Amino acid sequence: MNRQKTIPKNPNVAVYPPSMDINRVVEEELDKCVSFLPYCAKPLGENSCPLNNPSDGRKSQDCLKLNDKKCNVECSLGEMVDLLKENGFTSDRIFIIDSDSNLFPWLKQKKQEGYKYLMPGIGCPYGINYALDYIGKKMGFSGCMVFIEDYDPKDPKNGVCKSPSDYLNMEHGDKGKKTKITEESIQLMRKILDGSIG
């Protein structure tokens, strides 16, 4: 991250490769971008996502906003979907991760369809760290990765990014913890996509 040249250094975002001109991509090749968003981001509790179900909990790719339907539940996942759609992303260019093992085949397919960039890939630092080499070096994507730092020590039921084991436990099932794309991350992506960063 310390070598990023085209956007201000920010602990919530990494550009790969560091020399990538993110503003040029946004201005000229946004239609060559795909995005992946984190699983288990659907809200639970009193204002639960209407698409939570007994078998999968929140670990599904279902999202009303991806299907151009209204959702009245406050949801950071839905906010990010709205932002991407406002910037021309179609539903087939947005992947909500239900498992890490399903993400890589989707990215491989998108690469074969001619997509070149991730704008953004969003997840815990632990997930993105191990994925970045594969997505960048082996698959040939460039792009913007946004890190979720959603652990709140005052609320142990919130946040899946406390530790690598906490993150890995989420891969095997919905553990009931609430993943949240922070408002800071959403606003950062808003600035990147409207060209006001840099």
| Sheet with most strands | 5 strands, mixed
Total number of helical segments? Answer: 6
Give the overall shape.
globular
Calculate the terminal CA-CA distance, rounded to whole Å.
Answer: 15 Å
* Strand arrangement in the largest pleated sheet: 1-5-4-2-3
In total, how many beta strands?
5
**Helix vs. strand class:** alpha/beta
Q: Radius of gyration from the CA trace?
A: 16 Å
Low-confidence stretches: none
List the helices and strands and how they pair.
Elements: E1 13-16, H1 22-28, E2 33-37, H2 76-86, E3 94-96, H3 100-112, E4 117-123, H4 125-138, E5 142-147, H5 164-171, H6 183-193
Parallel strand pairs: 2-3, 2-4, 4-5
Antiparallel strand pairs: 1-5
Helix pairs in contact: 2-6
